[in-house]
Amino acid sequence: xxxxxxxxxxxxxxxxxxxxxxxxxxxxxxxxxxxxxxxxxxxxxxxxxxxxxxxxxxxxxxxxxxxxxxxxxxxxxxxxxxxxxxxxxxxxxxxxxxxxxxxxxxxxxxxxxxxxxxxxxxxxxxxxxxxxxxxxxxxxxxxxxxxxxxxxxxxxxxxxxxxxxxxxxxxxxxxxxxxxxxxxxxxxxxxxxxxxxxxxxxxxxxxxxxxxxxxxxxxxxxxxxxxxxxxxxxxxxxxxxxxxxxxxxxxxxxxxxxxxxxxxxx
Length: 266
What we know:
Distance between the termini: 41 Å
Largest sheet: 9 strands, antiparallel
Oligomer: single chain
């Protein structure tokens, strides 16, 4: 089941059969720019702990609560959802990505509102397990875009929010590290139009482009995740804000700069 929010600038959709992860982001009458070919490919929460004996396609994997579900397509469990014309709230019990089991010791919550050209997503993750895991890079959040938008754009210089030149690259496969000193990145097409994601307070990211067919359900995808290092320890609560928008690079940057200035960021 899909739930949508829309205004005159944006249309956003979450998939309740994928834990309420974001599967759709478009202009009001435009094409979906996200990739959602499996339960891992959405805009969604994902966290990592220690190796737990699970195997992803025969590869040893880690404890990995994923909002959407597991790699075999079993969905996470949506505990509750509220849907008004202006806001979506979803609370989810995630699945272990490779192990497949529901992780009752974890809870993932998201609250989404639209404000003009921006989608504001507030994520909250609670871990009440008894195991303390080592600190690892965590996706804040995982972001999967249609491979038709394969140029990664962000600001890597030392003069943030001055209009200084952006860095544009097409990431390879597998993961490579990147950073953004304005705390946002975007995947855009040849016309420099696409999706931007801003996670305030997060400058590091990991990224790749996976080859394959383009389109929202194509095997190819453009991926990045802003990353922070956190340890899953009993009682952990992680809350963070994410802003998403669609437009040209200039529009994306200007909208995020407005947020940064309003929040008193440098």
